[in-house]
Amino acid sequence: MTREPVLTIRDLHLAFGRWGRKSNVLHGISLHVGAGEKVALVGESGSGKSVTARLAMGLLQESRATHATGSIRFDGIEAVKGGPEIARRRGNRVAMIFQDPTSALNPTFKIRGQFREVLRSAEPRLSDAEADRRAEAALAEVSIPDPARALDSYAFQLSGGMNQRVMIAMALANRPELLIADEPGTALDVTVQAQTLKLMGDLAATRGTAVLLISHNLGVVREFADRVYVIYRGRMVEHATTKQLFAAPRHPYTQALLSAIPKISGGGLPDLPERSPDFERPLIVHEGCGEPAEVV
Amino acid sequence: MNWKFTLPRIGAALIALIGISMLIFAIARVMPGDPARIALGPNATEEQVATLRAERHLDAALPVQYWEFVKALSRGDLGRSLYTNRPVTTDIAQFLPATLELVLVSVIIMVVVGLPLGALSAHFRGRFPDHLGRLIALLGICTPAFVWGVILQLVFGYFYPIFPIEGRLLESTPVPPTVTGFYLIDTLLSGNLSAFGDALHHLILPATALALAGIGQTARLTRSNMIEVYAKPYVEMASAYGFRPWRIATRYAFRPAFIPTLTILGLECAAMLGNAFLVEKVFGWPGISRYGVEVIIRKDLDAIVGTVLIIAAAFLIMNILVDVLVSIINPRIRLSQRKS
Ligand SMILES: Nc1ncnc2c1ncn2[C@@H]1O[C@H](COP(=O)(O)OP(=O)(O)OP(=O)(O)O)[C@@H](O)[C@H]1O
Ligand SMILES: [Mg+2]
To answer: Which of A19, A177, B44, B143 has the CA that lies 20 to 30 A from B261?
Structure first.
C-alpha cells in the first residue's frame, strides 16, 4: 500500500521579472518526497535548487515580479502561490536548514529569544519557562554540551558548528514532517557537515521525517540519499535511486558529472569542460522511481 | 555605566569644547563693528565707549582676553551681556530650558511618528502604504521647519483655532516656580495640572513644526535600514521558522535596523538645536536660539561665546548619549567592552 508523499511538486514553472524582461528559471520541475525518505537534489550553481526549496516553503511570494505555476502539495494544501496556509505550517510542519548558520541567526537577539519564537510558532501560548525547558531539551538532543549557556549566547559568540546545531535544533523543535536542507553546513568544516547529515538521517529513520537534501557534494549525496534528482538549468534531467544513479547514469549530463569526478572523491560538483546540447535531453526516470501513487 | 567606554568620549568632547571656545572667541572679536559702541548706542561719547572697552579688556591682545575669559569661566562666570545687561549665565539659565524643552518634545514626536512610519513603509515596500509613507517623509524633509511653522499656525491657529500660536503659556496662567525651567515639569511639580495642560497645548505646534523634517529623515532611514535587514538570511530564516510577519517587522528585523538609525537620529536631534531658531522666531518662543541670534546681531561678545559654548556642549552631550545608547543595544559592542 502506498501513502501519499509528504511533498509532491508537479510541473513547477517559475519566472522572475516583469513584462518583456521575464527570465524563466524553472521549466517544469516535478519531484516527491515520502515519509522517512531521504531525497537529494543535485545540480550546478544557478540551476534552480534553492528557488525550488524556497517555493516549497512558500517563501517566494507571488508578486508582480515573481510568477510560479504548477503544483506544490504539502500537508493537504496547495503551496505554489505561497500565502497564509503554508506560512502557518512553517517552522512547525515544514522546516528548513540554511547553508550558513551564523548569518541565519539574528545578531541582536540571544538564542533564547529566537528559540522561544520558534516554539511559539507552533504553540502561541507557551510560557517562557516551558519554552526554555523545551529549548534546552532540543539543544541537548543535538549534543550541545551546555544548553543553558547556549541559550544565553548570541550567535556571534558561538562557533559555526554550534550555530549549525542550534539551527537544526530549532528546525526540529516542533517535529516537522518535512525537513529541507539547502546545502547544510557547506560554510563549515567537514566534521560538522557529517554530524549534520547523521542527525538528519536519524530523524528520517526514527521519526519518519521526510528529508530533502540540496547538495553540491556528490560524495555526500551518495552516502546520504535514497533517491536522487538531477536538475540542469531549471529542468529535471534524471531521477533514480542512489544506487542506480551512481552505478549506471543514463542522462548525458549526469554521465558527464559523474565521469568528471575522480572515483573516490567526496568533493563538490565538478566543473564540466563544456556545455553539450545533449544536456538538454528530456528527463530520464529509472525503474521504480515513477510518479508517486495518488492517495487511495 | 561603563567608564572605560564613556570616559574617552567625554575627554574628546572636552577637547572639542576648548577648541570651539577659542574659535568662537576669535571669530566674535574679528567680526566688524565695535561692541562697546553698539552697546552704548550712537549718542554715547567717545569717553564712555573707551571706558567700556577698558572695562571689558577689549583693547588687550587676543590671548590676554582669552586668558581673562578662562579665569572667569573657572569661577563659573561667562561674563555680562551688553544686550540684557545681566550675567550671561542668568540669560542662559532662563532661555536654554525653553529650547531644550521644545527640542526634547520634538525628538519624542520624531521618534514616535518617524520610526513606525519607516517600519510600515518597509513592511509594505512597493505597495500603497509605502508610497504614501514616502511621500509624507519627502514632504517633511523638503519643507523647512519655519514654513511648517507658518502652515501649522494658519491651519490650526487661524482657520481652526484649536492651538495657541505664540509663547509658552497663556497670559492668565501663572508661570510655575522655576525648578528645571521645563514648564512641563515645573507645572507638575507645583501641582498645577491646568498649567501643565496649557504648557503642553503651547508646545504642540512649534514642536511639530520642528519635528517634521526629522520625522521624514527618520522614516526614510528606518525604511532603508529595514529593507536592508529584510534581505539578510536571518530574516528569511525567521520566516522559514514560522515567526509571524508582524513580530519580524516590530522586533526581529526592527532591532538590527534600529542600531544604525539611532546614530543618525543623534545628528538629527543636534540639527534641531540649530533649526530651533526659526521656529522660535515664528512662535515667539523665548529660547536660547533666538537669544543667540539677537546677541550676534548686537555683537554682544560674552553672550555670543556663552551661547555657542552651551549649544556646542548640548550637541556633544547628545552625541555621547547616542554612543552610549548604541553600545547598550548593540550586543556586539557591549560584549566586546565587557571583555576588554
Ligand atoms: N529573487 C530572484 N530574482 C531574480 N532571479 C533570481 C532570484 N532568485 C534566484 N534567481 C535566479 O534563479 C536562478 C536559480 O537560482 P538558485 O538560487 O535556485 O540556484 P541554485 O541552484 O540554488 O544555485 P547554487 O548552487 O549556486 O545555490 C539563478 O539564475 C538566479 O540568478
Ligand atoms: Mg542555492
So the answer is: B143
